[in-house]
Amino acid sequence: MMIKEQLLPKDGFLPVPQKWPLLLLCCLLSCAVSFAGTPVPASSAAMVKTKSLIVKGTVKDSNGQPLPGVSVLEKGTKNGTATNGNGEFTITVNAKGSVLVFSNIGYITKEIATTGPTLNLTLEEDKKTLDDVVVVGYGTQKKANLTGAVSQIDSKMLENRPTGNLGQALQGLMPNFNVNISNGSPNTAPSYNVRGGTSFFKDANDGNKIKFSAGSPFILVDGVEMDPNLLNPEDIESVTLLKDAASAAIYGARGAFGVLLIKTKSGKKGKSTVNYSNSFQWSAPTAIPDILDAYSIQEAIVKAAALENNSAGSSELVKLQKIKEYMDDPEHQEPYYFENPQTNTNTIVWRGNVNPYKEALLDYSPMQKHNLSISGANDKNSYYGSFGYQNQDGLYRINTDVLKRYNALLNVSSQVNNWFKIDFKTGFNTSTYTEPVNPAGKGGWWTAMSQEPSRNVSMPMLVPASLGVKAKYTDNILSFMDYGSSNKETNSNLILTASPTITLTKDWSVKGDISYLNNTSVQKTILPTLERLETTRNATTTVQTNPDYIYRYNFNSNKYTLNLYTDYKKTFGKHNFTGLLGYNQEWYVDQSVSAQRNGINVNVPTLGQAQGERTVGDTESHWAVQGAFYRLTYNYAGKYLFESNGRYDGTSKFPSASRFKFFPSFSAGWRLSEESFAQWMKPVVNDFKLRASYGSLGNQNVRNYLYISNYGTSSQLQYLLNGVRPVGTTPPNLIDPNLTWETATTIDFGFDLVTLKNFEINFDWYRRRTTDILTDGLKYPSVLGAPSPQVNSGTIDTRGWELVMKYSNTTDFGLGYDVSATLGDYQSKVVKFDNNPNNLISDATLYEGQKMGEIWGYETYGIFQSQAEIAAAPSQSLISSGLWFPGDVRYADVDGDGKIGFGNNTVGNSGDRRIIGNSTPRYQYGINTNLRYKNFDLNFFIQGVGKRDLWIGNNLYWGAGTTGTYETYNNSWTPERNDAFYPAYKNASRNRNVQTRYLANGAYLRLKNLALGYNLPNRWVNKIGFQKIRLNASAYNLFEFKHLPDTFDPELVSMSYPIIRSYAFGVQAIF
User: pTM here?
Assistant: First the structure.
């Protein structure tokens, strides 16, 4: 393509040689040989021992499990060893009374004097040490020296959660890290956001609508960008979130809205360890509507007429009687009747009584997961290899949707000599999801299941072929599930990474990362013709409901990443310096091919066997980034901390004149607790640090080729040229010559406090302002024939805060516990938006001053009780010009003009509408608790939202018409029940305007996870050759406290695939 040829070489980007990974590795090896220092001297000869003593023993953790790889050193000497896989050691010491030092990462070091040939001991976890080192961009830092806003969790917080993907396991664990799970389908991929609103975006379904965007962070797995939902949670060692510009600046344009760093597991020192675990899970929906039976629905229709002083039609009364006849004797009655058999119209009327949800959904769906890993390490080499398998059924009763996933990972590290180390990573995962497909124009599955129970959902289609199907719903969902449709998607990812490290001196090293990531996606959709009922129950006719078709789609992408960086550290007295300088280049290309053809052969559903109209298409795109980055840190005596991160970044997504830009950040910290005047606080305040940071980052997550103008084509025109309908050409899009980066600037203030040794508090307040957001420019006359160009004209301001508290302890009788709590809040507001000069209030646009999630609506005074009240109230004819009746909603005349209306529908003149709520989740919190006693451990995790408003507009909430729930029906207004919450049970849109009375409270508290584990006693386990056998049982989304009707889950109020509640048990065996 011409675009591809002109893009990189001419605009400042170096071409990427096909063999650059190999050339780079050779260069690194050459540098290593040139700069290699003198080898480290070998250990001195063995000491001459007098009265030596052989000491044997076992080292265990607080749960009684053996600890492999523990260092055992005779104090004051170089005589040492390490425990084996069973925690056992043997060492010959100089003499009785010699002191042995036992140490291991993450445990409190213990010194014990030898008194005889046997020494057994227990090492306690060192909570402070576990958190001492934090993963940051291109390295690690001591937590005490951090000056940015960083959160980190380890693998233990992800264990024993019966979840299908990483996103579900991460939900609620870090403040202001928003994990959105759109529905409960096995194939649903959670989306991620850090600290709220980030930009604007055009609605994918309507390009004229502009909305707030809550963009995703830059997600790296072992330094390589990839989808975290494809990972096996069992392979994850730690997850670190870089939230402010100071900590994320080193990633430049890719980290404008946070960076998520995921580190996978590696081998631990000791002999080879095999770890097998499994989980068997059963899931059910958290909320299923309690659908009204067919008779109650029809009775409500008859009564609705009386509520408006009318009489139900004779056909409605007949249907009510017929439904009762069927429900009284379903074995001998047909679930339908003919409306007018005497006129021979044979119009079918359903009178069955079914609950579509119970007919179409399974009571429980199973899932099983199996994980096998082998790992080990010695002084020079380490390895970790794993294989994971997941098989998860969905909820469909017929043609059940199924997800199958396979994961494989191999991490190998080798210390070749004292100056050269090489790490290799190979990862592969593949998943396949199959599901039935609902025909186009027929509504989603979940809309279908909310239809009236009088339909017999197991029958073929009701609609005669002479009627269009688009006006009808899929009231017989089981037929659609069973008629042979299917969609099958297979996604595969391969990642290869080599990471050499050259140690030039003890303070200076050079590192590199070379990685390749391939993604392949294959989709096949089959939609055959559906047999539908014509005029009698048993006579079916083949009807082409949409055109039937077969669709194939193939997608492939390749991404190459190169990182080269060097770091240096030096200490002069109390002055501590570190520096990092590096270069990054990424190149990405993808291509796809799609084809569709009608008139399929159901016996051989292939494109070649189809006979109808065909459609083909393909796409190709690519982008590249280059950047040079740095990090400088300085601290004086561990008290005064300074850090600067920055990056000179370039991206192919912008014109050459504005392609490169420098994005710096600065941060500082003051460890007040280390000052001499604060030493009196040390017994209580163990560590206290104040932090501040400021920085800016560019955002390159925009469309490709924004700055390139080209002609387009349209489909066949509506006139003939020489007997042929020609293909048209569309005018080129307009380009703004000043197109440049969106820029996110963040300021952050925080503190870290450790008190009473075990109680930790972290707090941050921040403001992030995103400027130069890309939006449509000023509207041009339609005669121009081209849309407005994209311009940098928007600004969003987001402010928020977050709090983390942790406490851990062990009681005198051996109960260990730790509790961590997170709490966060944010609000985002439009500061500048030029596309709405009149400040119109609309779902299709934004206005300056608007907060993300705002809900505009009417205030209400309750429900009209009489015609006299209606006559005395301000006129509501602007809402509905028809008659109003007792049982209807009474709206408030806020502006006092004697009538209820929406004014000019602008912010300045909104009539009687006001901002009545906000749908943004506020005060999101999580509480994680772990208890340990002897061989038992218990974890429970509570997650929730403190404040949120929701407007629920679907029929399952309001009822009336041909559907509804008992919950609404039994609390709807009638003359005899005039204190009811809901208005009269009738299909009246005038009562359903957005308003205060029915604004739902979306706050909730949920027991997200409950897990109980038991380690079998070592005396049993060791006899059969195992190190550890653990039994566990867990539950996910166990229960919740909410304010919503029982029909809705607080995390999903739309009619979509329901959120699931899961129960699981499993076994872990280590040998």
Answer: 0.85
